[in-house]
Amino acid sequence: MGCGHKDDKASLASSQIASFSHQPHQPPSTPATKEVWKKGGRMFSILLAVHLALLACTLVSSGAFEKIAVHDYDVFFLLTVMMLIVIIWIIFYLVGTSRCPEAILCKDSHAGPIWLRGGLILFAIFSLVMDVFKIGYYSSFYSCLSAIKIIYPIVQAIFVVIQTYFLWISAKDCVHVHLNVTRCGLMLTLTTNLAVWMSAVTDESVHKAHSKLKKNVTEEVFKWLLKAGMRSSSAEECNCNSQICQIFKNGYFWLYPFNIEYSLFASAMVYVMWKNVGRFIDHHSHHIHRLKFRLFRRTFFVGIVLGLIILVSGLGVLVLYEVQVNSSTESSKKSQALTMYYIFNIVCLGLMSLVCIGGSVIYRFDKRDMDRHKNPTRTLDVALLMGAALGQYAISYYSIVAIVASTPRDAISALNLTYALLMIAQHTFQNIFIIEGLHRQPPKEDHKHESHQKDLYGLTFVNINAVSLRMPDSSSTLAPSTASGTEAIHPSELVRSLTAPRKMNWRRKFLREISMFLLLSNIILWIMPAFGARPQFDNDTELNFYGDSMWPAIVDICLPFGIFYRMHAVASLLEVYIVS
Questions:
Q1: Are residues 357 and 309 in the same domain?
Q2: Is the sign of the CA dihedral 536, 540, 541, 545 positive or negative?
Q3: Alpha-carbon span 510 to 299, nearest angstrom
Q4: Which terminus, N or C, of the chain has the lesser number of Cβ atoms within 10 Å?
Q5: Is 327 in the same domain as 406?
Q6: 3-state helix, strand, coil in the chain (%, to 5)
Q7: 411 and 522 assigned to the same domain
């Protein structure tokens, strides 16, 4: 990324720096020279991303079946090449922007908030552990495997490290040099993350299908079924008899959910960067709210306590479900596990729905203004919430049709129907609550109070008695500061502002309690399906109605979106909590 050449037929840097040099202390407002045909550059990068995504999707889906002459190492080869190209481009971007002072003229304060980047780092750490387990597993029998099986996790680990560092320091960038190259590089990065996500989802689904098949049939029948049509990893043909090999194998499959979430988090952050390429931000209308995250202040602890109870109870239900369903062949224990699972989720979803309705009612009394400024991050959050919810909507409606049309109906079917209906209601009410919370401006009381103190004194400690003694009579006021534009303030009002504790009204307190309860509840509702509690595969109603091939395909396609919805809702609820 050299500083001399600028694309898109516009010398953006020279004109902008010339205009900014006359007002060095003022942020950029409306650019004098706009980019020529901004939509054309975006269109080209989108077309590139679409073609790469379709190619990756074709290979991944084709490699899921043995009859198609596409193997898993073909998929790994494509993903490895894509990740290597992205690594080279990220290094090129970081070096180029660091050498060009005019490369990044402004930053988007809403992009890449600290809690989103913190979540990205958390998932990146678990993804690295997964890659270590993969390397250890495939190294146990490298003699009978293709070399790409070992190269792929090594390259993926390097990719995760470099991309995480890139997003940590560059998530807020509004780049103004080499616009088309930057857009294409970001779209390539986004497509690579989506391709890795598709591959991970497919591998996890195939692994769970093999595990369930192994539990129900003998070893000879299992091998015959693999040859008949189901994909078997090339590692299945090698012997993994040692204990350390089994630990590596089970370990990296248990860590797949974290890698899946990492890819989706990175894709969302890269998309916001892509939207901000060539963007100029008017800081007079683009308000920056510096909010402090205080978890254990100004709260009744009701939401945290109830959320922790739900979280711990859900973990217990998950353990019992895994033991009784996956480790036992008795139908009675399976029915007990399903009943326990459905009852817990019905209670949890019912409480969450009522809480969301209550939060929406409280918003009716909230006097804060709506934030109508342009915000690509918020727009993406809303789109992801609405889009990811479609996956769980689809599963729920398929279940409702199967339960209503099937006979006979038992207690588990009734619980399943209630669970499906509450799942639709909870997603709907929660989306309404989150979207309305994201569009609310932060409260103004705190800002007024802080500016009140800082503008008048700027002192760390104030002796209230001394201030009171030096105050003039109540009929007079402090002289206004015409230079700084500070309004005149009555002395008694000043003393009250210094001595009175900062109060939070009941609406904000209730909204914080609701946000924290929903946040913890969404965490357990993400953990349960992500780590194996999937009644859609264990309930016979849908399997008998749609068949053994159609229903698993529906769940495999839609469930990853439902799992991602929960984790994205956690990040959005954390933002709602901080803004409240």
A1: yes
A2: positive
A3: 8
A4: N
A5: yes
A6: 70, 0, 25
A7: yes
Contact present, 491 and 278 (Cβ < 8 Å):
no
In this structure, the dihedral spanned by the alpha carbons of residues 377, 379, 385 and 388, taken in order and rounded to 10 degrees, is -90
Left (φ > 0), alpha (ψ -120 to 50) or beta: where does 105 sit?
Answer: alpha
Parallel, antiparallel or unpaired: strands 173-175 and 104-107: antiparallel
CA 345 from centroid of its chain's CA atoms: 22
Amino acid at site 488: A
Distance from chain centroid for Cα 137: 29
Residue written as tokens 């999707």?
A: 57
Structural domain contains residue 482: no
Which residue, among 131, 194, 135, has the nearest Cα to 157 in the 3D structure? 131
Do 392 and 565 contact (CB within 8 A), yes or no? yes
- Between the two ends of the chain, the Cα-to-Cα distance in Å is 42
Nearest to 107 by CA among 376, 448, 408: 376
Cα 424 to Cα 21, 460, 487, 555, 559, distances in angstroms: 55, 52, 52, 16, 14
Q: Decide if 253 contacts 240 (C-beta within 8 A).
A: no
The segments of the chain whose pLDDT lies below 50 read: 4-33, 217-232, 284-291, 293, 446-489, 494, 497-502
Question: Distance from CA of residue 130 to its chain's centroid?
Answer: 19
Counts for the chain of helices (H) and strands (E), in that order: 20, 2
In a domain, 498, yes or no: no
Single pTM value for the model:
0.74
Identify whether residues 297 and 185 lie together within a single domain. no
Task: Specify whether the CB–CB gap between 10 and 35 falls below 8 A.
Answer: yes
Domain that holds residue 299: 293-442+504-579
* The pLDDT of residue 257: 87
Angle of helix 550-579 versus helix 411-438 axis, rounded to 10: 40
Same domain? For 184 and 298 the reply is no
Distance CA 189, CA 209 (A): 30
Q: Which two tokens stand for residue 504?
A: 């939070």
- What does the pLDDT look like over 273-292, one tens digit per residue? 898 888 777 654 444 444 45
What pLDDT was estimated at residue 22? 42
What letter does residue 501 receive in the DSSP assignment? P
Measured distance CA(433)–CA(526) in Å, rounded: 19
Q: Are 95 and 169 in contact (CB under 8 A)?
A: no
CA atoms of 515 and 522, how far apart (whole Å): 10
Q: Does 398 share its domain with 535? A: yes
In a domain, 346, yes or no: yes
- pLDDT recorded at residue 78: 92
**Token pair 């090698």 in the structure block, residue:** 238
**If we measure between CA atoms, which residue out of 135, 524, 427, 83 comes closest to residue 263?**
83
**Of 533, 522, 519, 520, which Cα lies nearest the Cα of 317?**
533
Q: For 288-342, give the secondary structure using H, E and C.
A: CCCCCCCCCCCCCCHHHHHHHHHHHHHHHHHHHHHHHHHCCCCHHHHHHHHHHHH
Instruction: Work out the number of other CB atoms within 10 angstroms of the CB of residue 372.
Output: 9
What tokens appear for 429 in the block? 């009410």
Total domains, the chain: 2
Q: Is 471 among the domain residues?
A: no
- Does residue 207 sit in the same domain as residue 118? yes
SS3 at position 552: helix
